[in-house]
Amino acid sequence: MHAAELLVAIAQIAVSLAGFSGLIAALRATTGEWHPRDIWSLSWMLGSSTGALMLALFPLWLALSVAAEDELYRISCAVAAVALGMFFAVMFVSDLRLTRRGFPRRVTRIHETLSLMTFGAALVDALGALGLLGRWLIPAYFAGLMALLLGAVLALCVFLILLARSTGNRQ
Fold first, then answer.
1. In this predicted structure, what is the pLDDT of residue 101?
2. Domain residues for 115?
3. How many domains does the chain fold into?
4. Residue from 44, 49, 43, 45 nearest 15 by CA
């Protein structure tokens, strides 16, 4: 499969996951008040899927002006490293604030997994931007996109787990 085809496939998956976050928001709005951790998880899901979409489309747009594939992916890695780093920082700080305000994590180890994946992807993309990955440059960029997609899926799983718990408590 050609890299451009894979980028388009990732963008399509990301749009689907973003759609799921909208569906969850609509369904959740009918069940009552949102818990602050639900909003955090929805933010992670929407941010991850939207980030994957934008970063999947970026190399395709950049290819219109950059001819060399290595240069194209080094620039893309630099943009991804900054975007992933900022997303990690915002979500990490908001997680800490929620904990300090008395809203403990409701599903164990998901937050750590999401943070580790996002920080790791940002770090790998930074290495790619610096030209330190050699022939692994393009796979590293795609790994960052996959980490975002996986993060969106894990955030969706949080919603499903919490929904199952709340349904079990009502019976």
1. 96
2. 3-170
3. 1
4. 49
